[in-house]
Amino acid sequence: MQELLAIVTITTLAVISPGPDFAMVSRNSLLHSRRAGALTALGIALGVWVHVGYTLLGVGLLIRESIQLYAALKLLGALYLIWLGVRMLRSRAHDAPAPNAPNAPVARGDLAALRAGFLTNALNPKCTVFVVSLFLQVVGPDTPLAIKLGYGAFVSGAHLLWFALVALLFSQGAVRARLLRWRVAIDRAFGALLVGFGAVLAGSALRR
Description:
mainly alpha; cell membrane; globular; 10 helices
């Protein structure tokens, strides 16, 4: 029971803390559609299983013990975030048509939204640290595999639930209609956030 309570508490605090996942879901929900935001949230939840998988296979211990390997993974994730951010920073008014325009796209492609969420989480060093620390420090070594998989399902489900709520909020008609007037500025703001996250992570990786 203590193990379960620790999993629930730590996961809840980690999920709601701002980061690249939040920025991506918010941006896709606002600038594309509720469906795009929800699929981004689903991609994030699926990305969590990448971290859970390698942690349960023992790779998580290797990552924690190998400074060089962890720094390399951190740098890879940082470069991906910077790449995403630069793409958003380069957005222009004609790249994001008004929602009522005759030729405006209804939503971002389903696969693209799902992939964005998956890669943002799977390559997020913050999530690597969180999952590895959670399973290696909170979960006991004698805990059955089925229980560990259940913990993984909870962590993934918590991400899905929280970011689905974020998608719902940012895709509300009244909120979305007002904010879309500044859609290019918003896209660039989210881009700057991702570049900032990536730069901090890259600097941290290179200092190791």
